[in-house]
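Q: What structure does this chain adopt?
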Amino acid sequence: MREALGVFAGWYGVRHEKAAVAEALERFEISHLGDRFAAALSSGQRTLVGIVKATLHNPALLVLDEPTASLDPDVGLRVRQGLLRFCATTGAALLITSHDMREVEMLTERLIFLANGQVVANDTPAAISAEFGYDDLEGVFLQLADESRLGEQEMRSPT
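A:
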Protein backbone atom coordinates (compact mmCIF):
# COMPACT_ATOMS: atom_id res chain seq x y z
CA MET A 1 0.00 0.00 0.00
CA ARG A 2 2.81 2.42 0.82
CA GLU A 3 4.09 2.28 -2.73
CA ALA A 4 0.64 2.83 -4.26
CA LEU A 5 -0.08 5.69 -1.86
CA GLY A 6 3.31 7.15 -2.78
CA VAL A 7 2.25 7.17 -6.43
CA PHE A 8 -0.93 9.05 -5.53
CA ALA A 9 1.08 11.48 -3.42
CA GLY A 10 3.31 12.12 -6.44
CA TRP A 11 0.27 12.73 -8.65
CA TYR A 12 -1.02 15.18 -6.05
CA GLY A 13 2.31 17.03 -6.18
CA VAL A 14 3.23 16.14 -2.60
CA ARG A 15 6.87 16.59 -1.75
CA HIS A 16 8.50 13.92 0.37
CA GLU A 17 5.98 11.25 -0.61
CA LYS A 18 7.28 8.60 1.78
CA ALA A 19 7.02 10.89 4.80
CA ALA A 20 3.54 12.06 3.76
CA VAL A 21 2.34 8.47 3.34
CA ALA A 22 3.81 7.42 6.70
CA GLU A 23 2.16 10.41 8.43
CA ALA A 24 -1.22 9.75 6.80
CA LEU A 25 -1.16 6.04 7.68
CA GLU A 26 -0.25 6.88 11.27
CA ARG A 27 -2.97 9.54 11.52
CA PHE A 28 -5.57 6.82 11.06
CA GLU A 29 -3.56 4.21 12.99
CA ILE A 30 -3.15 1.86 10.05
CA SER A 31 0.60 1.82 9.53
CA HIS A 32 0.41 -1.96 9.78
CA LEU A 33 -1.46 -2.05 6.45
CA GLY A 34 1.33 -0.24 4.62
CA ASP A 35 3.11 -3.40 3.50
CA ARG A 36 -0.02 -5.24 2.32
CA PHE A 37 -1.27 -5.53 -1.22
CA ALA A 38 -4.55 -3.81 -2.03
CA ALA A 39 -6.09 -7.12 -3.16
CA ALA A 40 -5.44 -8.54 0.33
CA LEU A 41 -7.39 -5.79 2.12
CA SER A 42 -10.94 -6.15 3.40
CA SER A 43 -13.57 -3.68 2.21
CA GLY A 44 -13.28 -1.77 5.51
CA GLN A 45 -9.51 -1.59 5.14
CA ARG A 46 -9.93 -0.32 1.58
CA THR A 47 -12.22 2.39 2.94
CA LEU A 48 -9.51 3.38 5.42
CA VAL A 49 -6.87 3.51 2.71
CA GLY A 50 -9.21 5.63 0.57
CA ILE A 51 -9.53 8.16 3.39
CA VAL A 52 -5.75 8.15 3.83
CA LYS A 53 -5.39 8.74 0.08
CA ALA A 54 -7.87 11.64 0.23
CA THR A 55 -5.82 13.37 2.94
CA LEU A 56 -2.34 12.85 1.46
CA HIS A 57 -2.14 16.27 -0.18
CA ASN A 58 -3.67 18.17 2.76
CA PRO A 59 -6.67 19.51 0.86
CA ALA A 60 -8.30 22.70 2.09
CA LEU A 61 -11.69 21.01 1.67
CA LEU A 62 -12.19 17.32 2.28
CA VAL A 63 -15.49 15.98 0.92
CA LEU A 64 -16.51 12.51 2.09
CA ASP A 65 -19.70 10.53 1.52
CA GLU A 66 -20.58 8.21 4.43
CA PRO A 67 -16.91 7.99 5.50
CA THR A 68 -17.39 5.23 8.09
CA ALA A 69 -20.36 3.34 6.63
CA SER A 70 -18.53 0.04 6.06
CA LEU A 71 -16.39 0.16 9.18
CA ASP A 72 -16.66 -1.58 12.54
CA PRO A 73 -17.68 0.84 15.31
CA ASP A 74 -14.20 0.92 16.88
CA VAL A 75 -12.53 1.57 13.52
CA GLY A 76 -15.17 4.18 12.68
CA LEU A 77 -14.36 6.00 15.90
CA ARG A 78 -10.66 5.92 15.06
CA VAL A 79 -11.40 7.37 11.61
CA ARG A 80 -13.55 10.16 13.09
CA GLN A 81 -10.79 11.03 15.53
CA GLY A 82 -8.25 10.98 12.69
CA LEU A 83 -10.44 13.29 10.61
CA LEU A 84 -10.78 15.70 13.53
CA ARG A 85 -6.99 15.68 14.03
CA PHE A 86 -6.47 16.20 10.31
CA CYS A 87 -8.78 19.23 10.24
CA ALA A 88 -7.28 20.66 13.43
CA THR A 89 -3.69 20.38 12.22
CA THR A 90 -4.20 21.42 8.60
CA GLY A 91 -7.09 23.87 8.94
CA ALA A 92 -9.05 21.86 6.38
CA ALA A 93 -12.82 22.10 6.19
CA LEU A 94 -14.72 18.81 6.25
CA LEU A 95 -17.94 18.31 4.29
CA ILE A 96 -19.64 14.97 4.87
CA THR A 97 -22.88 13.30 3.98
CA SER A 98 -24.00 10.73 6.50
CA HIS A 99 -27.00 8.96 7.94
CA ASP A 100 -25.05 8.17 11.12
CA MET A 101 -26.16 10.91 13.48
CA ARG A 102 -23.49 10.09 16.09
CA GLU A 103 -20.91 10.65 13.39
CA VAL A 104 -22.56 13.91 12.36
CA GLU A 105 -22.64 15.13 15.97
CA MET A 106 -18.97 14.28 16.44
CA LEU A 107 -17.63 15.73 13.18
CA THR A 108 -19.72 18.80 12.43
CA GLU A 109 -19.91 22.33 13.67
CA ARG A 110 -22.77 23.13 11.31
CA LEU A 111 -25.40 20.83 9.88
CA ILE A 112 -27.92 21.01 7.09
CA PHE A 113 -30.86 18.62 6.95
CA LEU A 114 -32.50 18.13 3.57
CA ALA A 115 -35.96 16.64 3.08
CA ASN A 116 -37.50 16.27 -0.36
CA GLY A 117 -34.77 18.45 -1.80
CA GLN A 118 -35.47 21.32 0.61
CA VAL A 119 -33.35 22.64 3.46
CA VAL A 120 -35.42 22.02 6.60
CA ALA A 121 -32.74 22.80 9.20
CA ASN A 122 -29.44 24.68 9.07
CA ASP A 123 -27.61 25.33 12.34
CA THR A 124 -25.33 23.69 14.89
CA PRO A 125 -26.21 20.11 15.86
CA ALA A 126 -27.17 21.21 19.39
CA ALA A 127 -29.39 24.03 18.13
CA ILE A 128 -31.18 21.77 15.65
CA SER A 129 -31.77 19.10 18.31
CA ALA A 130 -33.18 21.74 20.65
CA GLU A 131 -35.33 23.31 17.94
CA PHE A 132 -36.98 19.95 17.24
CA GLY A 133 -37.22 19.06 20.95
CA TYR A 134 -34.73 16.19 21.03
CA ASP A 135 -31.60 15.47 23.07
CA ASP A 136 -29.71 14.29 20.00
CA LEU A 137 -29.91 14.30 16.22
CA GLU A 138 -31.24 10.75 15.89
CA GLY A 139 -34.73 11.87 16.92
CA VAL A 140 -34.60 14.80 14.50
CA PHE A 141 -33.52 12.50 11.67
CA LEU A 142 -36.31 10.01 12.39
CA GLN A 143 -38.94 12.76 12.63
CA LEU A 144 -37.86 14.28 9.33
CA ALA A 145 -37.80 10.85 7.67
CA ASP A 146 -41.34 10.18 8.90
CA GLU A 147 -42.56 13.58 7.72
CA SER A 148 -40.90 13.05 4.35
CA ARG A 149 -42.50 9.63 3.96
CA LEU A 150 -45.93 11.02 4.89
CA GLY A 151 -45.50 13.88 2.43
CA GLU A 152 -44.66 11.43 -0.36
CA GLN A 153 -47.73 9.33 0.47
CA GLU A 154 -49.97 12.41 0.35
CA MET A 155 -48.52 13.41 -3.02
CA ARG A 156 -49.27 9.93 -4.44
CA SER A 157 -52.81 9.60 -3.10
CA PRO A 158 -55.59 10.91 -5.36
CA THR A 159 -57.53 13.92 -4.10
